[in-house]
Amino acid sequence: RLTGLEEGAWRDAKVDFTRDGRRNDGSGGAFAAGNLVDDLFFFVEAADGRDAELHIDEVVLYDGEEETR
């Protein structure tokens, strides 16, 4: 869930599917390494209830591991 976005401004966001992902049945939990993504859904709702538009320039999927130091 992204909040505090300004109207008319581009923003970057990274989504961690292990933390933020939900399966089509609504269940969550960690996705296994190599899990295939077949759909991405974006639900847009303006804070004041007005209609909202979402413009997406690019989506990049990658399998990354958190670095440990």
Architecture overview:
The structure is a single chain. The protein is largely without helices or strands and 69 residues long. The longest helix is centred in the first third of the chain and has 4 residues, at 17-20. The two termini are 28 Å apart. The protein has one helix spanning 17-20. It has one helix and no strands. Helices cover 6% and strands 0% of the residues.
Keywords summarizing the entry:
little secondary structure, 69 residues, 1 helix
User: What's the shape?
Assistant: globular
Indicate the radius of gyration in whole angstroms.
15 Å
Task: Detail the poorly predicted runs.
Answer: none
Question: Strand fraction band?
Answer: under 5%
The termini sit apart by 28 Å
Order of helices and strands: H
Approximately how much helix is present in the residues? Answer: under 10%
The largest sheet is: none
Task: Chart the SSEs and their pairings.
Layout: H1 17-20
Structure summarized in a few sentences:
It contains 1 helix and no strands. It has 69 residues and is mostly loops.
